[in-house]
Amino acid sequence: MDVSPIRYPSSPRLPPEVISLVFACLPANNDWATLRSCSVLSRQCLGQSRKILFDKISFRIRIDPKSKQVLINHVSRRIQGLCDMLQRDPETARSVKTLELLDSYPVYNSDWIIRNRNLPRLFKMLVGLRSLTFGCEVGYLQWPVLSPELRGSLYVFFRMPHLESLDLRNIGTIPPHVLITRVRHLHLDSITITLPYPMLVVSDALLPDTALSTLNLRTISTSTSTSAWVIILMHYRTVQSINWRCWEGNSLSTPFPASLDVSFTDPVTADGVSFTNSMDLGLLPCLKKLSIRMSYGKVGRDLTGLREALESITKRSPLEVLELKILFPLHAAPDYSSEIHNHVFWSQLSFTLLRMEYCALSQVRLDLTVHNWMTVRGDRTHNSINGFRKRMKESLRVMLGISTFCFKLQIHAFPR
Q1: pLDDT per position as a tens digit, 227-266
Q2: Residues whose CB falls within 8 Å of the CB of residue 264, separated by 6 or more in sequence, listed in order
Q3: Domain residues for 29?
Q4: Do 94 and 164 lie in a common domain?
């Protein structure tokens, strides 16, 4: 009698290349429920599902009045569980491409980031990470309050050759050498560095060899603006495009709640100064595009600072595209505001851009955003946008007549 075990025919299997193509179609639809279901089908499907499910990891504590209060222990436990899983599955760890660590819940003063012991461990395992976002959306996080282990992990991680994009938000007193990174895209939101600024005085041979191409900035004070310019000089050899967003508040008061805690208070007053006299665009040999977004405020103080910064150039610049986006939130009737149309910036801008240092300039774009009001006068309807456009063309008549570069003027309305 034959007592050998019964052998069932093996089920047909698709080639791994075909399975990869099937899973590649799922992320476009954000079908996460299907991915979770696929992960329990087989070991092969589990690996393919995790590559997509863990492509982006985001840790954020948000303020949601409809949900229960978030506890630091819950977040710490999730980070520890993620580290344990990635340690057991190194292939999934290599699949993580994007990581976000942002605090949007000021009740705990960013303690879940500052005191978390597993974050340095997490950074060591993410050997394939391409994009990192770190900081806080509410309040202000000081670099010295981070644990020495976390500061050391970030310092090493910023230099990793596989990191392509780095986004730092609301972090103060960062040592300049920490930002010596080889990323191609750098986003800095209200960042300050420690004094003194050694990069302003060291020789060219001591400057780091970087690969930065695109730099996105947001500044709210003299300190953040000066820090931004020092960082630009640290990457001056390679930076090609700068997108600079200036302080756009309705007042010059600090945007953070008054508090003695460093997680809430900006160490420098948000004075709204965006440009300093130390700026010299001629020092950037690869700069091709400069885009600036700013608020006119009450008297156009930042416009004066921008004009002085453009006039401070000492060498010929390769700048080809200049975009200025100016908002007028404090002027209810911009078409009747003579202080706007008579501002010295409009007449001086043309003479500044005609200097030999800006001979490579081929396109200048000016986008102005104002309030839109409709008024009826007799049998005619008056539109503030049309009136503002007409008066601005008079103020910019010299710019409109320049033939050495293409000048475009656009007037937009604030959304209601």
Answers
A1: 999 899 889 999 999 999 987 654 333 333 333 333 333 4
A2: 106, 109, 139, 140, 256, 257, 258
A3: 15-53
A4: yes
